[in-house]
């Protein structure tokens, strides 16, 4: 009987349904608030009326040797009564199926009963780009006109969309891929990409760019310090393993480094760990006004991805669909 009750109470929300309601307009504001709540939860005392309680341990992973990993990303956000976990796999060598696959499970916070399961690929794709937009809004030096994207996969596409939608000042988007034909395919995908040009080298793509996004599956640095314009802002989105890096260690050490979670970065980010760069702040601390946005300096936002971002995205989907 209990099983019958359960199976009739939770829904599976497909990728199509998620995409139909998860707009960047809603998502960027929600992710910004989520990042702020996450950083506030650790900095204020239990007596503080403005305290927010977000319980989000660092992602746990199990490896499948020479293939990939399964990550488990739980969170509880007291303010929203959200009890959520994402299960995500990353198999970078996949050829004919996506490299990332995920489901997001939402539970009723007062009973622990399952409420809904959502396609997690679409949530991961969009909320990651939304987090980069939030960091760029706070850390870019003025209105960006040139964006460089290194990598041309799923995240490249979502970052392209989210950035073009948010920053009307953008005049040119340059894209690079280690397989040049893939950069050309990306730039020529459809007429909406009229402002997009494929570049032969990373240097051609990033020279003079105001904002750079690294979204590759590379395990060694692709973005070199000497090519980056002083004052540029970089969103480092790939390299989610402690032994992987996408960004020149000299660039990591000379830039002001922001992260999504300090604890996460110190466990998972090869860009931070291998370079021994100092982490200046969490981006949520900038959102909360407790740390400075050094917009006049070269800045790096090292993003690893957080459950709090998945949870606020899931909330938008459930609210919009009335579930
Ligand atoms: N920070 C976050 O929240 C998240 C980070 N990611 C990471 O972002 C990166 C991109 O993810 P997706 O676009 O979904 O993956 P994808 O598999 O769709 O694209 C990967 C891109 O990297 C390129 N690439 C592969 N090997 C390379 C190499 N050795 N050098 C340079 N480029 C190489 C591929 O050609 C492709 O353009 C991955 O590292 C992924 O793990 C993904 C999701 C969330
Ligand atoms: O936050 C996520 O989701 C992921 N981050 C790093 C790569 C796997 C998925």
UniProtKB/TrEMBL annotation:
InterPro entries cross-referenced by the UniProt entry: NAD(P)-bd_dom_sf, ODC_Mu_crystall, ODC_N
MF GO annotations: hormone binding; pyrroline-2-carboxylate reductase activity; thiomorpholine-carboxylate dehydrogenase activity
UniProt similarity note: Belongs to the ornithine cyclodeaminase/mu-crystallin family.
PANTHER family noted in UniProt: KETIMINE REDUCTASE MU-CRYSTALLIN
Protein name per its UniProtKB record: Ketimine reductase mu-crystallin
UniProt EC number: 1.5.1.1, 1.5.1.25
Domain of life of the source: Eukaryota
Top-level EC class: oxidoreductase
Known partners and oligomeric status: Homodimer. Binds the thyroid hormone triiodothyronine (T3); T3 binding inhibits enzymatic activity.
A GO cellular-component term linked to this record: cytoplasm
One Pfam family linked to the record: OCD_Mu_crystall
Catalytic activity, as annotated: (S)-cystathionine ketimine + NADH + 2 H(+) = (3R,5S)-2,3,5,6,7-pentahydro-1,4-thiazepine-3,5-dicarboxylate + NAD(+); L-proline + NADP(+) = 1-pyrroline-2-carboxylate + NADPH + H(+); Delta(2)-thiazoline-2-carboxylate + NADPH + 2 H(+) = L-thiazolidine-2-carboxylate + NADP(+); (3R)-1,4-thiomorpholine-3-carboxylate + NADP(+) = 3,4-dehydrothiomorpholine-3-carboxylate + NADPH + 2 H(+)
